[in-house]
Amino acid sequence: MDALARHTGLARRSLQRALTERGLSCRHIVTEARARVAAQWLLESPHGLAEIGFACGFADQPHFTREFARHVGLTPARYRQAFAVRGMQGSD
Domain of life here (predicted)? Predict the structure, then answer.
């Protein structure tokens, strides 16, 4: 939160208020960013779900699955099945 506040030029509390007014939190923004990076890796890499989740900062695969589904609307496995390039599908 402190780094984000410095980056935006706002005091920490001012940033918190601005996010709250928009229905956001620092935690929500960080999780959204992690889910976006994970989505890209799910489509472009042969790595397993647990490895991608861990690399994106999720504590374990259930945490990754829960948060990814909350932000994307699909579990990581279903997302990969639905959108991965055909050649990648057999590499799981």
Answer: Bacteria
